[in-house]
Amino acid sequence: MADLETPLRKLVGEKTAKALASHLDLHTAGDLLYHFPRRYDERGEHTDIRSLEVGEQVTVLGQVQRTAVRPMRQRRGNLLEVTVGDGSGGVLTLTFFGNQAWRERDLKPGRWGMFAGKVTEFRGKRQLNGPEYVLLGDGSDGGEPGSGGEAGEEIEEFAGALIPVYPAAAAVPTWVIARCVRVVLDTVTPAEDPLPATLRATRNLVGLATALREIHRPASKEELYRARHRLKWDEAFALQLTLVQRKHRASAWPAQPRPRREDGLLTAFDGRLPYELTAGQRAVGEEVAADLGTAHPMHRLLQGEVGSGKTVCALRAMLQVVDAGGQAALLAPTEVLAAQHYRGMLDLLGPLGRRGELDGDPEGTRLALVTGSLGAAARRRALETVAAGEAGIVVGTHALLYEGVDFADLGLVVVDEQHRFGVEQRDALRAKAEQPPHVLVMTATPIPRTVAMTVYGDLEISTLSQLPRGRSPIASHVVPAAEKPAYLDRAWRRLREEVAAGHQAYVVCPRIGDQAATAEEVGAIGEDGRRPPLAVAEVAPLLAEGPLHGLRIGVLHGRLPADEKDSVMRTFAAGDLDVLVATTVIEVGVDVPNATVMIVLDADRFGVSQLHQLRGRVGRGSAAGLCLLVTEAVEESPARERLDAVASTTDGFRLAELDLEQRREGDVLGATQSGRRSHLRLLSLLKDSELIRNARVEAIALVEEDPELDRHPALAASVAALVDEERAEYLEKG
Of 112, 180, 629, 668, which is most buried, counting CB atoms within 10 Å of its CB? Predict the structure, then answer.
């Protein structure tokens, strides 16, 4: 008997196997059985033809209502038009060119079939031109005569219940996949069930062979639910086992303990802080201090709202490591942010960060900034202080990763906004230490609990939810520019009022642009019916000549040279600019307490989390913040609903869940990074949160009694198949 590793060519023939491989990347029996149906149709239930969009590749279940043959105008021969409906009132026209009288005999009114093709529109009617089809009932097939008419029988066999509709390709329609699945199910026997029998019994899970059969050919919705539940469990359990094993192994790694010193730099720093730490910051400080004092590496995620004080927590951890004789490195995603962190830390530390300078504290330490734009002499001096161990705290960008940046004793790596770094880059910095350094990952994008449990399950997680005293509330409003142009005029007046009151403002655009453009060019409609996203280079001059005439306007985006970006930020921070027109380069870390208003243009072109991050740039001082989301999206459209949600709450965790609901959850194991197909098909991080929690409980129990799964070889093999080594490394390095 064949098994899941058997090549498809041995089961379905060379020609079909080649089509499955080239169009759907399916090569083995296992690949095909794990190519799950996208949905299930029931004969007599409509598939909502009215919702089909032009240009979409679709498979619909419909009933023939009428046929008509008429001569073609431009060439010889007849045109066959077939009208099909789905029971909802929606109709679709199928058109067949050339003399195909035999199709008219097949497609009799009353017959049900599945029809696949690309939706087009002609004279206001939606249609499929020359679609592939299979009729349900007597086994006739819509291919050429003799091209596999048995497909109808195979689908008819379970058409009374649920008809699987697969992710398909034009060359491999869904019924061809269904036929191949039937062959494989009849031929292949999965090896022993990888899940321990006691776990299956405890969690009421069907066997793997049953699940694979019933997800493709369910006799009822109950069977389908059981099959999906078991296969989701496999995915969640494999993922959690991988993470729990990683965590277990990490606890055994050796690391240099960096315990807290009571009379050191950290104590002196706490004594000179101009404000009191929040209860959350103190609690996180205790967790981090305890981790740093142990003999295995800290691996902690620090998440918190924008402005919740993560940087101070990170600086306190760095000072504890310096007190213990080590060095700490902070890796920032942009030069603007690295320079800002460096200046901010110097300000906070005062004389404690200027050891060796005239006004420096001899008991303090030195800070070094390492970025790609440093001049040769400045870079050489910075690298010497790092290599000699004189610089206890090193702040930098990717430049910290390059050869030639050597540390005397790297004890802690702090990664700011880790989602902006590739896995390999983060790992390269950790490799610069003799022993694995402690790692603290900071993110200002709140992560829903089940996502954190699934993606960061091998990290300890600390959360800062409380804003420091002195932070002001931020009001957010949607400005519907197309429906109510007067609202946009009012937005610009509101910005001017804030500037007149001595404050500053941001205007954010989705694009950089190449050059200045006229107002007509900026509003020009493209071929797709939409105008291009607004760009900084186009908007800034229009604002300077129009609604913001007379204000001091600066421009900031990622294409500016590093020294120019730094200069613009310094000028804005010093209050010498009224308005900064920028891209999302200001999304992370930019801290100007005097900025109170932000206007986001084309706000519907940004993600939910991105908008939440952006608005965190205002309201950072004693005056209240205002964020205006300008959009042309119409009321009740998904884009408008998304913006209304952002305006209605400042709870970053709720918005992170909304973000996840609205976009594809993506491959949590980094297949998008590796470009490889993921085996995680069914698990939804939000809908299956309880299942994920249960899988984690079972994974912890199993790893405690059998850390390397030596007593469960089939399970170990199954985990390796679902979470291959490349993705396991992605998780570990994350």
Answer: 629
Q: Are 373 and 561 in contact (CB under 8 A)?
A: yes
Q: Is 132 helix (H, G, I), strand (E, B) or coil?
A: strand
**DSSP class of residue 633?**
P
Task: Give the 3-state secondary structure of residue 245.
Answer: helix
Closest by CA position to 440, among listed 604, 291, 581: 291
If residue 115 lies in a helix (H) or strand (E), which one and from where to where? strand 112-122
Q: Which residues pair with 463 in a beta bridge?
A: 303
One-letter amino acid for residue 14 of the chain: E
Distance of CA 56 to the CA centre of its chain: 24
Check residue 170 and give its pLDDT: 76
**First-to-last C-alpha distance (Å) of the chain:** 41
Max Cα distance, the chain (Å): 98
Q: Which two tokens stand for residue 557?
A: 């985006």
Report the mean per-residue pLDDT for the chain: 83
For the chain, the residue count is: 734
Q: Report strand pairing: 299-304 vs 112-122.
A: unpaired
Burial 593-611 (b: 16+ CB within 10 A, else e): bbbbbbbbbbbbbbbbbbb
Lowest-pLDDT range, 60-64, 285-289, 516-520?
A: 516-520
Distance CA(619)–CA(633), nearest Å, equals 27
CB 175 within 8 A of CB 134: yes
- Extended beta strands in 132-250, E state: 132-136, 163-165
CA distance 29 to 13: 12
Element (H, E) at 415: strand 410-416
pTM of the full structure = 0.67
